[in-house]
Amino acid sequence: MKKINKTRYAILGMLFDEPLTGYELRKRVLDSTAHFWQESDASIYPMLKKLKQEKKLTSHDESTGKRKRIVFEITNAGKKEFLAWLAKPVDEREHHRSEFLLKIFFGAHAHKNILLKLLKQQQLDLLAARKRFKEIGHIISHKNLATHPHQPFWNITVRFGLKRAASELEWVNESIQALK
Amino acid sequence: MKKINKTRYAILGMLFDEPLTGYELRKRVLDSTAHFWQESDASIYPMLKKLKQEKKLTSHDESTGKRKRIVFEITNAGKKEFLAWLAKPVDEREHHRSEFLLKIFFGAHAHKNILLKLLKQQQLDLLAARKRFKEIGHIISHKNLATHPHQPFWNITVRFGLKRAASELEWVNESIQALK
DNA sequence: TTGCACATGTAAACTGTTACATGATTGG
DNA sequence: CCAATCATGTAACAGTTTACATGTGCAA
Description:
The structure is a homodimer of 180-residue chains. The first copy, chain A, has 180 residues and is mainly alpha-helical. The first copy, chain A, has helices spanning 7-15, 22-33, 41-53, 76-87, 99-105, 112-141, 151-179; strands at residues 20-21, 57-61, 70-74. Chain A has seven helices and three strands, in the order H-E-H-H-E-E-H-H-H-H. Chain A is elongated and about 60 Å long. Chains A and B meet through helix 1, helix 4, helix 5, helix 6 and helix 7 of A and helix 1, helix 4, helix 5, helix 6 and helix 7 of B. Chain A binds a DNA duplex (28 and 28 nucleotides) through residues 1-5, 7, 21-24, 39-43, 45-46, 49, 63, 65-70, 93.
């Protein structure tokens, strides 16, 4: 079974209820899904072009003067494809690599101090991540965003990040103790 | 900054204290690091060849009759490279994609039942994962393995998997409730 | 006037997987 | 005798990132 490109679904999803430019799209991905989904320029712009060719998107030029601005809008065919993807079970074969855990796994070959340094760095990263998730949690619970129709789902993904960070922090602390 | 290939470190680490064939190497990866590190044939065999060219490994032929068998052994240069990697802080830019969370994030566009189905499948997968981690935990705590010098580190990575599964299970349950 | 955000895009390099290709040995 | 495991390897392809390339508009 061939692996299929999922950038298309991130794009279709972002465009589902409002037209955006490639740049705006990229920003959305950067500050709303960054902790579980990333895209770069070089994946977004070509994919927008491809989706347009497939008639999953339309585009219109909103350039003002010399300032370029191309806005993309989802078509019914695009919505249909997106919804079909949503309804499919997730791709089982998705697996992740963690260089950090690989180092821990081979820890017997390192001096204790090296491992402690790795674990403490991880601890700092996790504390920072937890703080960020808390902030995001606050932002989406207040003001205009609290009643946004997507808010409950954003909240679920934020809670995922929060819980993961908390559990990994516990693990790091426990592992630091075990090592000493 | 260029991304660097980390398959080499997985290989060097596995060969650090015993020579192995490519096939054995692959099996080790498959049943000891599979939950945080994977390799396929097509990454291992070419990398073994490359590492040999770089003099990080040596090989000798142990074929018996027609049965091929090429055993690779790490050199001092290989050990040195591996230890230098271990001591380096982990690559910050490592990020993961989760198709599952991407679907949840866009959940507002799906019917409730579709989301429940996704969450329940995830729940089943996590229960299976937790069971597997428990089994691995038992295996490495008993018999000859309990005193293996690497055991404490294996144990730390298993506890990582166990804790993560537990925390994600809590999250799934909570999310299923929230959705109803 | 300088830096930042806006804005779009390509080329090259690299990573990694799937599918393909081939065959031997061992145990039930 | 047949299935599983041992054993090694390549070709083609898909995915993804980094670096490159170029320029505008605005605000301090």
